[in-house]
């Protein structure tokens, strides 16, 4: 009985009708002829409500299912599918309220549908998570009513479903084509001019117009009595590491996503491209301690290992220890590797404190320091100030932007590759930097 009471609701029509009947009873105090008519309307109303309840609580019911993907992609639109099967012999009117995870702070979800008798229907909605971790869906509530709309029956389905939010594998798939040698022209993607060639020999072939005459193999030419040239290819199976700073400076948010999450999404997309280029990929995360270290490998399963490692990476309010990073890199990375270091410096003094360790790492490895342009400051430099206060803000913003450029120049002066990029363009620019290094044969 208690279960029946908890599942029974009444529509707005019932309350409007009760209000009208109350008014009629009040008026009948002066006009007695309305008294019997009002009681008749009350009885008819009661019969209709009873009939409506009987129809809704017959032995048939509905089947509803919330279909979630195996995992969500962070910072991307993810699809949730809801299917409804009407087993009643009449058309039903439904109101669906899904209890979306608390991380979205969305409490106004409502979907209304008309479902014909014995028919199945479905609808989709999109969710965009901005934080990695476990997301718990609550009840999937559906309220059904007949054409009378007097009573409603509540059904509850799919209690406490959980889905994990991983780094942006959707972005990774979108940038997957950048591993191809022949890339089409797209906005944000640079064509890298190859300077010279790497020294990994591939084959000897016949000379054709356009081949570099410096690669002519004179011994093979004499033997075959025609011009033969050496053909080289990009060096492969080189160790490439994504090194992610998890210190407090990476907690800074841009458009709802922290710098750390931008770095993690970029590291995953970059690792995928590097694997497709036949290089070995690995990752390392650090703050005041070394959090994760995944040794470089070219196995196909390596990308899943990196994704699982990045899933649990988080930032705390600690200062990053670059001396510890240097000691661990020296101890564990014995071969010369490409290190893509995702970090952030807001002041020149912060860079100067860490510069000795960065220079020490760069002596043994090819180091690329990736840090972030403060886009809000950049916007301030382009406004037209209307008062003294705005002019002061613009002056400070210009100083911040100038300091970022000075930091980039300072790193380059010490032979360290740099990449200063807006957070939203990080993945594209990081992959372009990697392709540039491959094309120039710097590693």
Automatic annotation (TrEMBL):
Domain DUF58: 204-370
Residues that span the membrane, as ranges: 9-31, 37-57
A Pfam family the protein falls into: DUF58
Keywords: Membrane, Transmembrane, Transmembrane helix
Protein name per its UniProtKB record: DUF58 domain-containing protein
